[in-house]
């Protein structure tokens, strides 16, 4: 079976993994003045920074799961490249959410069991376990991480800003080539120190600010 | 790792009344349930009872939870999860009510999707419940408050073991008659704020009677926090659900999605038939 259908399942917004609680820092950005027409730039900035880290982490974890190499160095490399504590916390919580589902889908997977045995694995590691079990290729895994982030922000933007949903989906569509570039860029990575280490201090600041607000629609 | 298993759910979510009864009588075997990680996870009956509280905005969900904490926290270990539209409004109300250790009250963000968070993707709420249960083990009861939604929103049986649906006299005397899954089939229906009835021109006795006629014998409590007998009735119901849960006899039953208010040929109903059917 091709990996297409499993990819579609994992990319579906209806997946019960708490995706509806996330805005990818968009809520904090809007609160600090980001406007509707800046959302595509915001999405592109994420692809250039935090999403590259997440996608690179997922791909390296996939390689190491298949090669039987330990995953702790991947988790450490991801944490070192994710300086904002609330971002790490969010990814770990979403990892826990995804793990609930992945354990149900692949109860006999040794890859899933290995990731479940880690202390608070981040979301890319859980996705990598699903990919390793379901035969998803590294490039496809990178596409999945990038696409999910685009749709997370697009979907949240409709709750936060006065937008036409057709516009939001057009933005996702227009950024697909960028997502593809990201996926092919990280696909060959195999070592934790290969994981890209870009910096996006404004996203980090927004994540930290958001974690301390008392009135918010989204968890992060 | 400390994470608990995914909550076991019935293979089919909607049980008929006879299936509920048969499931209860077959205790402790639990209807199509399997355990993923029996080694590390307490059985359903060993963990605390998870009670959902839902109903339209302003019917008194937070107050009811504060009331339960006040009445029960002397002898039961309690945790609370709230889902507000703007997260932690309800959590802050409960913390300021001083009825429970603030650390035991968690707010869950729903991304402006309160219905989704208790129904089609309960993940964020389940994680909050599990974290409370891990941190304050052993908890006897976890109360999950839905974000105020509408008459069609009910909890998934994957999230709570039993659920209370709230309406109030100030919402209008005809609300109970209009029905809906929560009003008709929640484990308990509370008609709240009966002390306000004279001021809003509603007859609470008729309202409770309307509710009773659509609920086929399921319990209804007319509640006012100024009426000790009604508070006692609520507390008694909660304790009896806890006893059934601990005995393995409580099987989560789904009030179901919104169903049209219809009457099959040959069935009877007891309320006045003076309203339009959809």
TrEMBL record, chain A:
<protein>
    <submittedName>
        <fullName>Urease accessory protein</fullName>
    </submittedName>
</protein>
<keyword id="KW-0143">Chaperone</keyword>
<dbReference type="InterPro" id="IPR038277">
    <property type="entry name" value="UreF_sf"/>
</dbReference>
<dbReference type="InterPro" id="IPR002639">
    <property type="entry name" value="UreF"/>
</dbReference>
<dbReference type="Pfam" id="PF01730">
    <property type="entry name" value="UreF"/>
</dbReference>
<dbReference type="GO" id="GO:0016151">
    <property type="term" value="F:nickel cation binding"/>
</dbReference>
<keyword id="KW-0996">Nickel insertion</keyword>
